[in-house]
Recover the amino acids of this structure.
């Protein structure tokens, strides 16, 4: 069951979200039931993990662990999910996987369908092989399609399975999934997730050598990001790649430069994809 404070989430602004949660915590920790407080603390830990403050996140979850009892099923599941997410984000997938598996099992057993799918979708990210990641994503998708309380996950699952199809070289299947994700996001009406879904469609179109079509979508996304004063490094990267594929290297150069300027600030990319950043830097010269 989702709590009222879940509406405060802005996953793009984890520091701001942490402040909102902490403000709420000071208001309720003396009067609210312990299950509610424990769940709120799990989400504070998630904001800390998204800020890569992993030690602080574990300390917050240690506090939650001391509060849990057998009557707090939702809090137990959310504790397992967030402890697993902190491990996964800090490249400790072997520690994360059993926690996600336990959250999946408890979620199904007590009818917490939304959290069960969350756990399965995380196993679809954290598992050790593409085959196991695909297996868990498909399991999550089948469960979400059958349980109304978990249908909000469909867009994310179409997206994740799409990227697994890209990884396997199945671009036609990937495009179909990204287009399904886009339709789902458009039905939801969230501008941010629609933007990402369009970007994914365009990226696969470029990989399929439908470069002009991809370029047109990315140019639309560039205009949208400029209107909202929210420049996007990934859009600039793809614009550079599209123009480079069309032998328009001089036009591509400033997009690569802007992409490097923005994406080099992303600590995850710095740690995990230094070659990608080095390529952007070189092409942006």
């Amino acid at each position: 069951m989702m709590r009222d404070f879940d509406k405060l989430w802005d996953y793009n602004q984890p520091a701001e979200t942490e402040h909102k949660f902490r403000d709420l915590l000071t208001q309720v920790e003396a009067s609210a039931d312990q299950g509610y407080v424990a769940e709120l603390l799990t989400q504070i830990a998630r904001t800390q993990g998204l800020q890569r403050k992993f030690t602080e996140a574990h300390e917050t979850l240690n506090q939650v662990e001391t509060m849990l009892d057998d009557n707090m099923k939702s809090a137990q599941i959310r504790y397992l999910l967030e402890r697993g997410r902190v491990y996964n984000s800090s490249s400790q997938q072997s520690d994360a996987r059993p926690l996600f598996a336990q959250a999946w099992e408890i979620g199904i057993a007590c009818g917490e369908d939304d959290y069960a799918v969350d756990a399965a979708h995380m196993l679809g990210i954290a598992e050790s092989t593409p085959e196991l990641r695909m297996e868990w994503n498909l399991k999550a998708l089948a469960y979400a399609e059958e349980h109304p309380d978990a249908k909000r996950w469909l867009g994310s699952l179409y997206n994740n399975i799409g990227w697994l199809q890209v990884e396997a070289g199945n671009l036609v299947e990937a495009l179909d999934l990204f287009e399904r994700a886009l339709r789902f996001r458009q039905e939801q009406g969230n501008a941010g997730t629609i933007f990402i879904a369009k970007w994914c469609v365009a990226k696969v179109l470029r990989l399929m050598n439908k470069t002009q079509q991809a370029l047109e979508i990315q140019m639309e996304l560039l205009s949208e990001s400029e209107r909202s004063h929210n420049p996007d490094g990934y859009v600039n990267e793809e614009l550079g790649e599209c123009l480079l594929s069309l032998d328009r290297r001089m036009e591509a150069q400033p997009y690569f430069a802007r992409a490097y300027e923005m994406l080099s600030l992303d600590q995850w990319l710095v740690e995990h994809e230094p070659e990608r950043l080095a390529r952007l830097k070189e092409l942006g010269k």
About this structure: The chain has 15 helices and no strands.
